[in-house]
């Protein structure tokens, strides 16, 4: 049943546009494959599969160029000098993972060349080329020169060794540890292929709340097997390192990073791993955060911890991705300020192979957060972005929310740290402060569900994450367009409305969950559904009431000068804007300010009425998503149509649940009637 779903964006449906099909067939009269590596074989197979499915004839494969209209694939070193000449200086414009797709003329015969410095670049070029066909683009006069703008484009799997997935809503973990290393599930290969097709080049296999067992030989043997599967697809394996591992599996009495035995234990562990996996990527570490062990347990700091691990992997070219997701129950004044307060002073103190991984916002993957104040504030330290692809706070895999819209909003935020134009994207791609080590991580939404991600549209979030990791300046609407064409159909009657539906889906979830800057009012623990009333958790900053601070005077968290002064963590230009309710964007108003129920919004509504209308708008938007979806029935296969239809029904029901629960709860404080236009809860 789920066969279409399983194929993700690599459907390779038949090209139905007759003119295009004949253009493609004319220009693609066989493949000349010049490489011999495993990766080259994958490139060839992918081209054969793609062309066979889209054009319905099996392309002939030639070892050398004959005749005309061939598609030539091979890395630089495999090209004849004549072809190299045709490429000219384009090789200088790409990095080790970039590619070139070019219409060339050899002895007056036209061909299409896909080349790169390395075989993996060629593979990326092949996927890009197939995407041209999948999205019905012309392939005449091609001249595409592309290279990824970040080095580490990585999924973070929060997968436990018992195959449960923390915040995973698409079944169990893909990694079948019990059957590894000898049993290689076809899904590992399909997973690698899907990732390579969007340029993802790394995967952290294990949960940030780490289990030290993964570092034992029994497990490393299994990790090695996965690394062997992923390698030809250009994907490096990384692991999470539990800071207390030297005690738990090493028999030491301490995990103090300044202890020589501890440092040596990690050095030996790294050597052991690299012996098995020579291209092992390195470690991702969550330390002294939410109860995880870390250097502070021994009176040391994050720099001591990260640098000790960095020394262990440095001889092998490994990196340490050290997370900045820290907050403590001992300083409950404002959780949003803690990561900056703790990490900013460490700027410049980390070793060269450490990159600090920062969540997109200062709290925790909310439907909307202002960009994290650390971006741009640590110019001497490489920072990488951590987005969440799994929808922990956005309706799990039940609600349709197109996340690249959220990612784009963050990436194009201006930090002003080096004046106007200091975009978060420039921090991430290293251009703002000239960093060579760069990266973007996405907390994976993948599980062993037949459709990988639980919701068919959640596949777009995996896809879009990969595309934005490759190029953080891409437009989310373009990505949605591509994804829809590759996944469903090129029919404009389908594309246009569904693209609009996707594009408004993120704002819809903000409206029916947390409009106007509200945040973290989801029910406790699981974070599904509303829970603004929750106030009894042991740690104050886990309670929703801590975040909305509703009382009879109004609602919102005062993070301005008159409150916690979190605004001062931003560059002065940004601080000024956020600090004043009149200039603070209304979408962030209650994030930064506690305002009265009668506060006048820009549209003239009082805060109470405006907020209620936003909740209603969210519900209406979901209704509209349903209407749009229902009209697409002729263009979608029955299974996927039905699945999305059922999911949208749930989403609609739950958007009303959110609206009613939040408005009834907040109404106790506002003491006001619901405005006209807002449906009364029943
Ligand atoms: C959130 C999430 C946890 C996760 C943590 C993290 O708090 O709820 O499950 O472990 O983020 O990112 O480390």
TrEMBL record:
Q: Which Pfam families match?
A: Glyco_hydro_67C, Glyco_hydro_67M, Glyco_hydro_67N
EC number(s) given by UniProt: 3.2.1.131
UniProt keywords, alphabetically: Carbohydrate metabolism, Glycosidase, Hydrolase, Polysaccharide degradation, Xylan degradation
Question: What residues does the Glycosyl hydrolase family 67 C-terminal domain cover?
Answer: 453-678
Q: Where is the Glycosyl hydrolase family 67 catalytic domain?
A: 133-452
Sorted alphabetically, which InterPro entries does this protein's record hold?
A-glucoronidase_C_sf, GH, Glyco_hydro_67_aGlcAse, Glyco_hydro_67_aGlcAse_N, Glyco_hydro_67_C, Glyco_hydro_67_cat, Hex-like_dom2
The top EC class, named as a word, is: hydrolase
One example of the protein's molecular function in GO is:
hydrolase activity
Q: Which reaction does it catalyse?
A: Hydrolysis of (1->2)-alpha-D-(4-O-methyl)glucuronosyl links in the main chain of hardwood xylans
Q: Where is the Alpha glucuronidase N-terminal domain?
A: 8-129
Q: Which family does it belong to?
A: Belongs to the glycosyl hydrolase 67 family.
| UniProt-listed PANTHER family | ALPHA-GLUCURONIDASE A
Its quaternary structure? Answer: Homodimer.
Report what the protein is called: Xylan alpha-1,2-glucuronidase
Source organism per entry reads Flavobacterium calami
Q: What is the lineage of its organism?
A: Bacteria, Pseudomonadati, Bacteroidota, Flavobacteriia, Flavobacteriales
């Amino acid at each position: 049943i789920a066969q279409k779903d399983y194929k993700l964006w690599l459907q390779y449906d038949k090209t139905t546009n007759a003119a295009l099909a004949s253009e493609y067939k004319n220009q693609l009269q066989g493949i000349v494959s010049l490489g011999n590596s495993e990766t080259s074989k994958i490139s060839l197979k992918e081209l054969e599969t793609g062309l066979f499915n889209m054009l319905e004839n099996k392309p002939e494969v030639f070892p050398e160029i004959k005749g005309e209209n061939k598609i030539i694939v091979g890395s630089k070193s495999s090209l004849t000098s004549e072809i190299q000449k045709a490429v000219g200086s384009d090789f200088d414009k790409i990095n080790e993972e970039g590619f070139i797709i070019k219409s060339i003329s050899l002895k007056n015969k036209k061909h299409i060349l896909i080349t790169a410095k390395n075989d993996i670049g060629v593979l990326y070029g092949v996927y890009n080329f197939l995407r041209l066909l999948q999205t019905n683009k012309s392939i005449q006069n091609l001249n595409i020169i592309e290279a990824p703008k970040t080095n580490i484009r990585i999924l973070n799997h929060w997968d436990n060794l018992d195959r449960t997935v923390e915040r995973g809503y698409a079944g169990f973990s893909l990694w079948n540890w019990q059957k590894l290393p000898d049993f290689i599930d076809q899904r590992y290969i399909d997973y690698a292929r899907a990732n390579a097709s969007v340029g993802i080049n790394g995967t952290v296999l294990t949960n940030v709340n780490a289990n030290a067992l993964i570092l034992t030989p029994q497990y490393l043997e299994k990790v090695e097997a996965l690394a062997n599967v992923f390698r030809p697809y250009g994907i490096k394996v990384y692991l999470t390192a539990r800071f207390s591992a030297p005690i738990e599996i090493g028999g030491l009495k301490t995990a103090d990073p300044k202890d020589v035995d501890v440092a040596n234990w990690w050095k030996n562990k790294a050597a052991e791993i690299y012996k098995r996996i020579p291209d092992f990527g390195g470690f991702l570490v969550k330390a002294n955060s939410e109860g995880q062990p870390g250097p502070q347990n021994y009176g040391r700091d994050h720099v001591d911890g990260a640098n000790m691990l960095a020394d262990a992997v440095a001889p092998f070219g490994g990196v340490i991705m050290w997370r900045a997701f820290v907050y403590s129950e001992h300083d409950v004044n404002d959780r949003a300020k803690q990561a900056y307060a703790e990490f900013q002073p460490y700027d410049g103190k980390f070793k060269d192979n450490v990159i600090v991984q920062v969540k997109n916002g200062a709290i925790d993957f909310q439907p909307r957060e202002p960009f994290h104040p650390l971006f741009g504030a640590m110019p001497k330290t490489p920072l990488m972005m951590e987005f969440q692809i799994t929808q922990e706070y956005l309706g799990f895999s039940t609600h349709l929310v197109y996340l690249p819209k959220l990612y784009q909003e963050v990436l194009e935020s201006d930090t002003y740290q080096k004046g106007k134009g200091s975009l978060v994207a420039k921090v991430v791609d290293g251009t703002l402060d000239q960093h060579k080590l760069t990266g973007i991580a996405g907390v994976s939404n993948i599980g062993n569900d037949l459709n990988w991600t639980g919701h068919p549209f959640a596949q777009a979030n995996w896809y879009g994450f990969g595309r934005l990791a490759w190029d953080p300046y891409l437009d989310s609407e373009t990505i949605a367009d591509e994804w829809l064409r590759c996944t469903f159909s090129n029919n404009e009657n389908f594309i246009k409305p569904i693209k609009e539906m996707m594009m408004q889906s993120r704002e819809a979830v903000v409206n029916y969950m947390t409009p106007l800057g509200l945040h973290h009012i989801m029910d406790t623990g699981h974070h599904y559904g509303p829970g603004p009333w929750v106030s009894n958790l042991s740690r104050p900053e886990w309670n929703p009431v801590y975040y909305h601070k509703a009382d009879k005077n109004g609602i919102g968290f005062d993070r301005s000068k008159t409150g916690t002064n979190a605004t001062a963590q931003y560059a002065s230009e940004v601080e000024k804007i956020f600090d004043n309710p009149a200039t603070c964007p209304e979408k962030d108003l209650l994030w930064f300010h506690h305002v009265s129920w009668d506060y006048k919004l820009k549209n003239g509504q009082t805060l109470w009425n405006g907020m209620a209308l936003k909740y209603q708008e969210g519900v209406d938007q979901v209704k509209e998503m349903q209407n749009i979806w229902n009209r697409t029935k002729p263009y979608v296969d029955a299974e996927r149509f039905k699945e999305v239809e059922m999911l949208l029904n749930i989403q609609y029901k739950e958007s009303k649940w959110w609206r009613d629960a939040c408005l009834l709860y907040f109404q106790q404080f506002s003491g006001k009637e619901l405005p006209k236009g807002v449906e009364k809860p029943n």
